[in-house]
Amino acid sequence: MKIDILTLFPGMFEALISESIIERAQRFSKVSIRTHNIRDFTTNKHRKVDDKPFGGGPGMVLQCQPVIDTINSVKALSPRAKVILMSPRGKILDHSLCLSLSKAAGLILVCGHYEGADERIRGYVDQEISIGDYILTGGELPAMVLVDSVVRLLPGVLGHDQSNIDESFSNGLLEYSQYTRPADYSGKKVPELLVSGNHNIVKSWRKKEAVFKTMHQRPDLIKHISQLEI
User: Fold this and answer.
1) What b/e readout covers 31-70, taking b as 16+ CB neighbours within 10 angstroms?
2) Which residues of the chain have pLDDT under 70?
């Protein structure tokens, strides 16, 4: 997959793409991530990308010309890529949406900034996505969240493909409690059945634990609890 990020602050993505799982995914050619500075597509000598809103009001608005020109430039190289605007108006990012995006031919992420983006930019966008109902300075952090969530779902990125299946939200539930050595820490012991060696018992316990955690910590996720086989 190719992921292109259109931003005013490409430096913000340096740590994201040069560390941990995402760095390894690029090294083993599972994903290619590139940043594009929207300012490079301005037509004025001061590289100005924003202006006052028509009709008055506070703040500045991201101009359509440099953003649309950047989109068109990247789209020419990745014509099948899906153009996504990171926007508070968008659909909330969840596991199901991440899974869908991980199957796309490519992604072009547009990071908004300032008071908002010129409405005409949306004519070049396939989808708008939000990471939650709160205000951020720009679309860079949401884009990072999306990239991290999607890349880990690509085949071969994680060390064990089962990791994606067992994680929180993959089946609509939170993940079960996890433990590792030591088995006894200051009198706090790991549940005995987890060290029993009986995989069927462990599997049953984990399923019940996932339901229990979800009911108590995220009851909003439980929609069809009566249909779960516990």
Assistant:
1) bebebbbbbebbeeeeeebbeeeeeeeeeebbbbebbbeb
2) 160-170, 223-230
Is there a single domain that holds both residue 173 and residue 139? no
Spatial separation of the C-alpha atoms in residues 89 and 80, rounded to whole Å: 24
Q: Which DSSP state fits 195?
A: G
Return mean pLDDT, the chain.
91
What is the tens place of the pLDDT at every residue in 176-225?
999 999 999 999 999 999 999 999 999 999 999 989 998 999 998 876 55
What's the per-residue H, E or C state across 107-154?
EEEEECECCEECHHHHHHCCEEEECCCCCCCECHHHHHHHHHHHHCCC
| pTM of the predicted protein model | 0.86
144/59 Cα distance (integer angstroms): 25
Question: Amino acid identity of 41?
Answer: F
Same domain, 221 and 146: no
Peptide bond into 182 cis (omega under 30): yes
Identify the bridge partners of residue 127 per DSSP, sorted by sequence position: 84
The domain of 62 spans: 2-151
Q: With beta carbons less than 8 A apart as the criterion, state whether 150 and 107 touch.
A: yes
| Whole-number pLDDT of residue 169 | 63
